[in-house]
Amino acid sequence: MAITDVGEYAHLDDADVERLAAELDAIRAEVESSRGERDARYIRGVIRAQRALEAAGRLTILGSRNRWFWAAGAGMLGVAKIIENMELGHNVMHGQWDWMNDPEIHSTTWEWDMACPGAHWKHSHNFLHHKYTNVVGMDLDVGYGVLRVTRDEQWQAKRSAQFLNNLFLGLTFEWGIALHDIELAEAIAGNKPWPQTRKQLRELGVKAARQLGKDFLLYPAISKAVGGSFGRTLTANLTANVARNIWTYVVIFCGHFPDGAEKFTTESIVDETPGEWYLRQMLGSANISGGPAMDFMTGNLSYQIEHHMFPDLPSNRLSEIATKVRAICEKYDLPYTEGPLLRQYYLSQRTIAKLSLPDRWLRATSDDAPETASELRFAAVRERLQHAQEAAQDRLAHAQENAHERLVHAREAAHAAQEEVERVGLRSAIAEAARHKVEQKRLEVEAKRARRARRRRSGVA
Question: pTM for the whole thing?
């Protein structure tokens, strides 16, 4: 199951969590006090560059006479839509630039180039997702209602084909987001008032008609009126929108569903302190490494951890914030989940593929799986450690017993060898004495012979 006790999972006591919150609050205060002209120049420069790139792309499509100009125009328009969606729309509607008091760059007035009405997105994203980040049953972004991304959701037979839902969601991500806050299934089930749902559907209809009319009627008609191709412009606009959808989908999934981006139970947020909220954001998010170009094209959501802790601070400041957050994670021995785009995307897709299967087909437990973990994983770790220690002690005792037996055998062998040496020595001594005795007898015989010889010589004389 998901994490229920954030502090226990992070191995921090209440005092540690309070100190952690104070250090992160200090980072916020420092950035807020230093916001100024440099940041304003940045966002105004991005707006100008994005609009210029979009205009260049549309003009290139308008005048395209071959597939190369078509591809160049569609590519520029796709990049412009990505920038508008991620670095501008997402971040402006988060209130990151409200401190400038510029009515054009303000969360209450900005409307992005997406089918989803800004007000709908701000409710489902700014309020539900960022307040209840990865809380199963409260954060609608956990699987977006069509994917099983945690074992806390009971497996159903329809999940066996969720790879198709996943593919469709990636291609049409704009429309998935547009329907996200409406929760049509909840209205049908009677859990949401129909008057509210109908109002949202009308607002979505107005916004969607404007978007569809702009990209698939107005601009193709203008192209045809000036001698271009209606169909070529329409397909280029469609390609740009799909490219934006896929890129946005990839970035969002890399920040929320790779290994290490944890999930939480509703119990985890009961009486949640500011420090525990910070911890939940840190544990429930993942970063993408890749450098300045990656940071910009993701709307600085490559710093998803920092964005979730400080969602309303300017996106261009997240890189400097990340340096301080990493140091804090090291200080408190907290995980800091980060990886290249392709790896994070692979891990998120592996989770989706794996959880399309029933739990009985999976090896890891629901408390200690890469995609679903809880504080109980450490109990299992402690149990495995205890078993390993007991096994090691048994092996040590067995080794000591074997060593003692070998020592006893060695001593017995040494004693036997000594006895053998002594026996060999005794036999040698007896043999030597026998040789001495034989020699003595030989000498005695020779002495007798010598005496007889002398007597004979004396008698002759």
Answer: 0.82
